[in-house]
TrEMBL record:
Keywords: Cell membrane, Membrane, Transmembrane, Transmembrane helix. This is RDD domain-containing protein. The chain crosses the membrane at residues 45-67, 79-100, 121-143. It comes from Muiribacterium halophilum. It is a multi-pass membrane protein. InterPro entries: Pra-immunoreactive, RDD. The keyword Transmembrane helix applies. It is found in: Cell membrane. Pfam families: RDD.
Length: 166
């Protein structure tokens, strides 16, 4: 299968050299994940953690008294819930991606590279916390797996790719 460099349209005809839609040059679609996506996901995670830290200082976590958690785990529990709310709002409700994804030009798609259903995005946001807790498994998966998908992407049937140029 080949993809047009200009319009990013996929061509099924392996013998074609030019896009049937725009006339742009076709290139082979490489199997596996673009390693730049993995590095960009590190940047995205760092930016999102800084954003959550900023939000928790603007709205101190201890003021979120209605969230569950005892005094010993209060900060961690509420930070995780805040992280889920942040992910759900930006990834699922607004569908623009988190601040980190916007800056790093990444987006979440389903396995067919289409806009994922809302339930997949919600599931992904919840499982992202599991993935964070199991970072010692998730981090190596990013580099060892052929598709670069983390635990939460596998469970939700999604993947992270670069946004296509408009």
């Amino acid at each position: 299968m080949k993809r047009c460099r200009s319009c990013q349209r996929e061509e099924l005809d392996d013998q074609a050299h030019f896009c049937s839609e725009c006339g742009g040059v076709l290139e082979e679609i490489k199997k596996g994940v673009d390693p730049r996506v993995n590095l960009s996901r590190f940047g995205e995670a760092f930016i999102d953690m800084m954003t959550i830290t900023f939000i928790s200082h603007v709205i101190p976590i201890e003021h979120l008294y209605w969230l569950p958690g005892d005094r010993g785990s209060l900060e961690f529990d509420r930070a995780m819930i805040l992280f889920i709310i942040y992910s759900v709002i930006f990834d699922s409700v607004f569908r623009i991606g988190t601040v980190g994804k916007i800056i790093m030009k990444l987006k979440v798609v389903d396995l067919a590279d289409k806009e994922p259903e809302l339930w997949r995005l919600l599931l992904r946001s919840v499982f992202k916390v599991v993935s964070l807790m199991l970072w010692f498994i998730s981090l190596p998966m990013l580099f060892v797996s052929l598709d670069g998908r983390l635990i939460h992407d596998r469970l939700a049937g999604t993947k992270v790719i670069f946004k296509k140029k408009a």
